[in-house]
Amino acid sequence: MSSMELWYTEKQTENFGITAKIKQTYVHEQTDFQELAMIETEEWGNMLVLDGMVMTTVKDEFVYHEMVAHPALFTHPNPEQVLVVGGGDGGVIREVLKHPKVKKAVLVDIDGKVIEYSKQYLPSIAGKLEDPRVDVQVNDGFKHILDHKNTYDVILADTTEPVGPAAHLFTRGFYQGIYESLKEEGLFVAQTDNPWFKADLIQSVNRDVKEVFPIVRVFTANIPTYPSGLWTFTMGSKKARSAPGRCVQAAGARHEVLHASPASRGLRAAEVRRGSDQVIGYRPCSEKPISLWSRPHLADM
C-alpha cells in the first residue's frame, strides 16, 4: 500500500507555478483580511503562505529581508527612526536592528494573525519583534503614515502582492504619504514584484514614485520561491546626497558587523542591477560579483 504525499502548489501565472512537498500543516485559516497558511515543507522548511502565495520560507528568507532593509540603512547617514509597513513575519525588523544607529523601529501590519503565527512558527525570522526598540502595531500602514508627518528617517514597505488589503499600498497616494512621513534626508524602499510576469506593474510603480521622489533607483535579487525567482525593489530618496547611488551590487550583501548568516557565507552574490532590462531601459551595473562579506557598494555611473 503506497503512502499518500501532500504537495503545496502555487499557480504563479495561468501556465506556470511551483510546488513543494509538505511535511505538515500547522495553520490554515481565513483571517479578517486574507487566507493564511503556515506549513512545513521538505525543501524550504517552514513556509508562510498568504492568499495562496508564498510570502517567506526559512531557507531563502534572508535574501529578501536583507535587500529590503540594508541598502537604505547603509545609504542614510543616520537612520535612527525606521518604519516597516507590513512585514508581520518580522524578518525586515530583524535586519533593521542589526544597524547600531537605529534607536526605534516601528512595525505596522494590518493582520495581527501574521504576527502571531510568525512568532510561533518562524522564530528565526520573528525573534526580534520582542526587542525593546521595536513598536509593533496592528493597524493600516497607509493610515499610519498619513498620521505621522516628518517622523521617519527610513520607511520600508514590506507588503504583500497588490491585491486585497495591500492594493492601496501600490498607489501614488501611498508614495506621497511616505514622502511626507519622511524627514528631510529620508529614504524608502518597497518590494515591487518580478520583471518577468509583472513588468507593467513595475513600470507603473516606477512612474508613480518618480512623480513624488526626485531620485529613484531599482535593484533586484534572486529569491527562488518567488514568482520567476527574480525580484525587484524600488528605492526613493528625498535628497541627492542621500541617493542610493546608481546601483546596489550585492544580493543579500551585508557589512561584516552584521554577522552574515551561515546560509550567506558560502554564496557569491549575483549582480544586483539598477533594474531589470525590462524596466524602462535601465543600464546594468558592473558584471563583477561581490562577496557577501562586503558592504553594499553604492556606485555612481
TrEMBL record:
Binding site for spermidine: 65, 89
GO molecular function term, any single one: spermidine synthase activity
Pathway: Amine and polyamine biosynthesis; spermidine biosynthesis; spermidine from putrescine: step 1/1
Swiss-Prot/TrEMBL catalytic activity: S-adenosyl 3-(methylsulfanyl)propylamine + putrescine = S-methyl-5'-thioadenosine + spermidine + H(+)
Active site annotation, chain numbering: 158
Entry's Gene Ontology cellular component terms: cytosol
Keywords, comma-separated and alphabetical: Polyamine biosynthesis, Spermidine biosynthesis, Transferase
Superkingdom in the source lineage: Bacteria
GO biological process terms, semicolon-separated: spermidine biosynthetic process
EC number: 2.5.1.16
Residues that coordinate or bind S-methyl-5'-thioadenosine: 34, 109, 140-141, 165
Sequence ranges assigned to domain PABS in this UniProt record: 5-238
Assembly: Homodimer or homotetramer.
HAMAP family given in the database record: Spermidine_synth
Functional summary from the UniProt entry: Catalyzes the irreversible transfer of a propylamine group from the amino donor S-adenosylmethioninamine (decarboxy-AdoMet) to putrescine (1,4-diaminobutane) to yield spermidine.
Family: Belongs to the spermidine/spermine synthase family.
PANTHER family noted in UniProt: SPERMIDINE SYNTHASE (PTHR11558:SF11), SPERMIDINE/SPERMINE SYNTHASE (PTHR11558)
Designated name of the protein: Polyamine aminopropyltransferase
